[in-house]
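Quick check before the chapter quiz. The format below is the same one you will see on the exam, so make sure you can read both the input and the output lines.
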Amino acid sequence: MGKLSRRAARALYKNGIKPQLFKKHPDDVHHRMVSSARHFGRGAGPLRILAHKDKRLEQDLFGLHFANPIGISAGLDKNAEMPHVARAIGCGFTTVGSLTDTPRRGNERPWFYRLPKTRSLVVHVGMANIGLDKIIPRLKRRPRQFPLVASVAVVSQKPGCNQAAIIADACAAARRLKDPALCDAVEINISCPNVADDQPFTRAPALKKLLTAVDALQLDKPVFIKMPNLADWSRYQEILDVIVQHNVQAVVVANLVKDRSAVALHDDLPADVKGGLSGEPCRERSLELIRQTYAYCGDRLKIIGVGGTFTAQDAYDKIRAGASLVGMITGLIFEGPQVVGEINAGLSEFLEKDGHDSVRAAVGTDSRLLQK
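Here is the expected output.
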């Protein structure tokens, strides 16, 4: 039933829904998608026919149970409007935000620019969100027994803010998320590639100050760090060296591509279109960073792999490189809501083919020879 439903959903999305959506501006599509998800809310149950279940895909990580390794990354559901839909389409977890204690307008619109041949979106949202006063009531209504990660933005409220003020602002948000009713883990986003700064907290001195302050909060739940998509491994390694000295359980590898010079574009991209690139341009770079992070850190940090996941092969490559969980956004937009179930079904086939009795057995199998 699930397989047939996913085939029908894919045909409908490919031949009917997607052509119409891609005629519209991506800002409008995003708004309508999130609004529709908010409208469905707990009524999204019928979408469960798209999901794929398999005991081999289940994992217990950080004291949480994940029904499968595929989830939603931060950036799609900024205001916690979609957790019930994420669960219904078969995700094993979801991430909301990145959010801030007080509301942020984000960048001037347009926020998105579509690159259909490149299979990418240029994202220039900034940290737009409605603030925790309005988001917290939504988090209290989240689905239970479904891991929800709240991503906290580490970014200045206005130009000229010093690092101490930025840290205080991020900690104010994280402190409010200590309530176990609100989320199961906190992601600290140090690497937004579409705000007007140079990502100062991706440098060791500032990161040490930030994580020391986060440690002092004693959050009593897992802490993840959203990593930048850097080509310079030595710089990336410096960030990891700081992280492993603090109360951090996982790294999210990696954020959008900021440097376009090494990206193979198959669409015209005007120079005045600002933002980081999602999707396919992130895939190989994220995969290599996952592989190197796993080899370098071993069991000290779990990895959530993000960037360019469209198929089960993409997800399995990340898992074999060292990711225990895999997040996605652009693949969902380009392929349709049934893609989560398709990927999980494909993972089951890969596990069967490789003789693994669980997805955990496959984690890092391509990277273990690189470990020191």
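If your answer matched, good. The radius of gyration is 19 Å.
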